[in-house]
Structures are given as C-alpha cells and as structure tokens.
Specification:
The chain is of the alpha/beta class and 341 residues long. The protein has three domains: 13-180, P-loop containing nucleotide triphosphate hydrolases (Rossmann fold, 3-Layer(aba) Sandwich); 186-253, Helicase, Ruva Protein, domain 3, CATH 1.10.8; 263-338, Winged helix-like DNA-binding domain superfamily/Winged helix DNA-binding domain (Arc Repressor Mutant, subunit A), CATH 1.10.10. 48% of the residues lie in helices and 14% in strands. The chain has helices spanning 13-17, 35-51, 68-79, 94-102, 120-132, 169-172, 186-200, 206-214, 220-237, 244-253, 263-274, 282-289, 293-306, 321-338; strands spanning 58-61, 83-87, 109-113, 134-139, 146-151, 156-161, 177-180, 203-204, 241-242, 310-313, 316-319. The chain has a five-stranded parallel sheet, covered by helices on one side. The termini are far apart. Residues 1-18 have low confidence and may be disordered. The structure holds adenosine-5'-diphosphate (ADP) and magnesium ion.
C-alpha cells in the first residue's frame, strides 16, 4: 500500500480474501466458465497492452459470489498493474475519493466494489475523472473560494455492482466495457468444485462433485462453501474421502435439500402459501421472513425463479404449483423420518 494512501479508504486485502480467497483463481486460465466475458476482457486487455495505454473503465455486474472481485484481480494481474481496492460505502465524502484518485500512479487499476452505494455527491467527481482525467475541487470558503483543477494519471476504474439498475446513467455511460455475470451452469460449478478440491487437497468422487454442484445455486462462492463443510464431514467420518454418502450427510446437516433449497427458501415459500400463494409485495415478504429485501431479491429469489418455483409479476411474488408439490414432498419426507414405518 502506497504511503500516500489516505487512511481508512483502502480495505485490507487480507480481510477481503478471508474465507474463499485461497480458492480464488490466480489467472484467467483458472477462471471457469463465463467464456464470453473472459474472451472479451482478454481482448481489451491485450489491445490496451499493445498500445501501452490504460485499459478503458470496466463495469462488472451480477449477483454476489459469481466472480466480480476475482475478475478485478485477474484484470489487474493481466495488465501487470497493482490493484487498489475501495468500495462505494467507504467513499463517504468527496475528499475520500479525491485523495484516492490523486494517489493513483499511471496505469494503476482502481477497484470500487458496490459502486452503486457511492453517495451521489461523491459520484459526481468521478465523471470528469473517468472522462477527462481531471477533477475540479473548490478550495477555501466565502469570497476566497476558488476552483482548482487537478489532473490525474491515466488509470482504469473497475466498478463492481450487484445492482446495475441503481447506477445513474452518467456513471454507467462512462464505462467503456460492461460485463454482466450470470449464474453458472452445473457443469461449470462441478469443474470449480473439482479444482477447489485439488487446492484443498481432498479426494472428491465425481458423483459427489455433481451432487454438490446441483445444490450450489449456480454460484461459485456457495459451491466452495458447501465443499468446505462436506470436507469437514469427510475428514471426521470418512478418512477425508468425499463420496455421495458424505455429501448427503453434510448437506442434510446444513438443511439443504436435493434442489439446493435452504431453510430460508422453504420459509419464503411457506410464507407465500400462508399468504394465499400471492401475489405478495417484496416488502411484505421480507417482513414475513425477517430478511432484508435486497438479500431476498439478490440471493434467494433468483434460484427459486430459475427452478420455476416463484413468479415475479407486476403485482408481486407468486408461488407456482411446482413449488407447492415440492413443499408437500418435503413435508412428506419429514413425516416419514419422524414416523419411520
Ligand atoms: N469463474 C470462477 N472459477 C473459479 N472460481 C470462481 C469463479 N468465480 C468465482 N469463484 C470463486 O468464488 C469466490 C467468490 O467470487 P468473488 O469474485 O468474490 O465474487 P463476487 O465478487 O462476484 O461476489 C472466489 O473466491 C472464487 O474462489
Ligand atoms: Mg466481491
């Protein structure tokens, strides 16, 4: 970290890496799936390198856990540039952002996570920084107040957001590259699991990998989290070998069913049933299950929608017959285990 860094603005890399950092792909070749995004990014990076120019600003959007932060690291690595990390909510005052921008050296990559959460007053300073490599700051007050133009070194801004729709038009339009990440197909998740197992040094059966993959909601972070828990059970009860039996045992302990539904998914669906099946507004639903609206919308609903369990209509959320059938099946299973024949 450079000595000129304004205090409190950079987040500690180690803290960000906590948990799944050790499984993070180290280069583009290790990054599984999202082939179009990776191909595009590599092209723009190669072209920028060839011209010895800074890469155009990049916006990465998509739900949590799909690889936005990972891609930011990989882009900086491919550019051979240091990655400076900050985030929208941390940049509370314009001065924070100005200090950060003026501390950048030529070619540096600045990563702003959760960029949609940057206050609008701060965001406005980014416009001229991104477009003209300059910021106008007002110094002094009253009659002595005057505006001073600070020029910046050419840099690349990488913005990550889970809510692209909340970005203002002026900000969004200043990103020359915009890539959206979507949940991964089960095959990709399986490949990620196999690679992670190698990195964790554990033996993972093919059918066990497929079983975990089916229940990871298409999200690499979820897949790696499940793998760690499955490994715990394997270490304690199966001499470290992860087979189907171990997977079933571990996922049952975590309350995750065959389709990857968790306790919260089931609560959400049961609430909908109790509320007559819908349509129910997001706010009501969030209150009913005591969860943040954002979390419901970004983390839980997409998987339920993909499974065909939930419909998002203009009047609210509705449960489908497929979901009702699954819930009944589940209830039947629970009864069967309570009253074994
Ligand atoms: N395409 C991928 N291939 C392999 N692992 C991945 C991939 N995308 C994400 N991961 C894993 O998932 C974790 C979460 O990814 P991250 O980049 O932090 O997601 P986001 O920033 O979008 O929330 C990473 O630490 C990494 O281990
Ligand atoms: Mg991230």
């Amino acid at each position: 970290m450079s000595e000129r860094s304004p205090p409190g603005i950079f987040q500690c890399l180690a803290r960000l890496d906590e948990g799944d950092g050790s499984l993070r792909p180290r280069n583009f070749d290790e990054f599984v799936g999202q082939t179009r995004t990776v191909r595009n990014l590599r092209t723009w990076i190669d072209a920028a390198r060839k011209r010895e120019a800074a890469l155009d600003h990049v916006l990465l959007s998509g739900p949590p856990g799909l690889g936005k932060t990972t891609l930011a690291h990989l882009i900086a690595e491919a550019l051979g540039a240091p990655l400076r990390i900050s985030s929208g909510p941390v940049l509370e005052r314009a001065g924070d952002l100005v200090g950060l921008l003026t501390s950048l050296d030529e070619g540096d990559v600045l990563f702003v996570d959760e960029i949609h959460r940057m206050p609008r007053t701060v965001e406005e300073y980014l416009y001229s920084a991104m477009e003209d490599l300059a910021i106008d700051v007002v110094i002094d007050q009253g009659p002595a107040a005057r505006s001073v133009r600070l020029t910046l070194s050419p840099f690349t801004l990488i913005g990550a957001t889970t809510r692209e729709g909340l970005l203002s038009h002026p900000l969004r339009s200043r990103f020359g590259v915009s890539e959206k990440l979507a949940p991964y197909p089960a095959d990709d998740i399986e490949e990620i699991l196999v690679r992670s197992a190698v990195r964790l040094g554990c033996a993972l059966d093919q059918d066990a990998a497929a079983s975990v993959a089916r229940r990871a909601r298409g999200i690499p972070r979820v897949a790696n989290r499940l793998l760690r828990r499955v490994r715990d059970v394997a270490d304690l009860h199966n001499e470290g070998r992860i087979d189907l039996g171990v997977v079933d045992q571990a996922l049952e302990m975590m309350g995750i069913d065959a389709l990857g539904l968790e306790e919260m998914d089931r609560r959400l669906l049961s609430c909908l049933v109790r509320l007559g099946g819908g349509p129910v507004g997001l706010r009501t639903l969030a209150a009913a299950v005591s969860e943040e609206e954002d979390t419901l919308e970004l983390v839980y609903e997409p998987h339920l929608i993909r499974l065909g369990f939930l419909l998002k209509t203009p009047r609210g959320r509705e449960i489908t017959d497929t979901a009702r059938a699954h819930l009944e099946l589940d209830a039947g299973d629970a009864e069967a285990s309570l009253f074994p024949s």
